[in-house]
Amino acid sequence: MVTSPLTFALALIFPTQSGFRGRDSLLSVLTLIHAAEFTSAHTHFLPSPLQNRQFRLKLFWRLVVSIQRQVFSALSQISKHSIGLAEMVVEAEVFPAAFVSLNDPDDYVRKNVATLMREVAKHTPEKADALNEVCVCGCVFLQLSQLIVNCGGLSKIVDYLGETRGPLRLPGIMMLGYVAAHNESLAMAVILCKGVPQLALCLSEEHEQHMKSATVWSLDQIGHHTTEHAKVVATANLLPKLLALYMDASSSEDLQAKSKKALKNILQKCTLVSALEPLLYDAPSNILKHVVCQFSKVLPHDSKARRLFVTSGGLKKIQEIDAEPGSALQEYINAINSCFPEEIVRCSSDNSTTIIKRSFQRFNYTD
């Protein structure tokens, strides 16, 4: 039996469930208020009992859509305030039933579901730290995010991003970032659900600055964990795009700041030489030092990468960098040069393929 407006509303949204535990009176009040407002605003359209049934059904479903919008919005507003409230919403068994509404014909219903998922996923142990609840709340956050992952929420959001455009995408973009931010395991879950290619599409298709900023931030949360995470972002050819956004004078300050931070964080984990080398030619000095630093880490341990680095002109470019003596950048350059015989370093400056090949043969440097 339906005993409250909230139970009625959630019974309409989740017909396969028996009801909602409904400990939050705020939800009942909001649902009642908005349902009453909707009904009162349309009373002059109500047909007599003798009029056709189709019109009454249409009006009824308009009421259902309005209730769906408001319920998901109310749940989002409750979830965003604290980990405890987000946990209460999850305990009400809203997921995974709510995922069905990501396919709803109404854009606002879909957006509000994505927003609810974002608000549940965004709580971090750092926020709990301010409340001296690090251990307990950190575990709760992991449980909340892991629940969304286990229920198939990530793939649903990735699909949602592929089917929407513009502001509707924003909560989904940020939800992926919030999940990935917590630890490398959850970030890998985002990767396995094809989150990076979808975010790459969002970055190229969306033109609003705040949309690009959110996408760059989410890519940062995915790529900064380990070399494997960074490799996925780099393989998607996103490093040059992040650099372009950072250097674009028309980019907002926020977009430039997020692009710079993402580049720095991802580069510090990236060991993919083919993705690093193009940045040698385009990056400004404050980014270039991170690129050169990665080469100084990778080249000493990879003979194939060393050979390609010489024949592609990478070593020549290193010699052209004007670094201050004693600077960190100069130390990285010295470390790179120490991986090669002096004659090869010297010949690389002459850009002579023949001389370089002879040097390789002379030093038996053909691995």
UniProtKB/TrEMBL annotation:
CC annotations in GO: acrosomal vesicle; axoneme; extracellular region; microtubule cytoskeleton; sperm principal piece
> Looking at the record's lineage, which domain of life comes first?
Eukaryota
- SUPFAM superfamilies linked: ARM repeat
Spans traversing the lipid bilayer: none
Alphabetically, the GO molecular function entries are:
microtubule binding
Report the record's Gene Ontology biological process terms: epithelial cilium movement involved in extracellular fluid movement; filopodium assembly; neuron projection extension; sperm axoneme assembly
Q: Which residues form a coiled coil?
A: none
Gene3D superfamilies to which the protein is assigned, alphabetical: Leucine-rich Repeat Variant
Q: What is this protein called?
A: Uncharacterized protein
Give the species.
Xiphophorus couchianus (Monterrey platyfish)
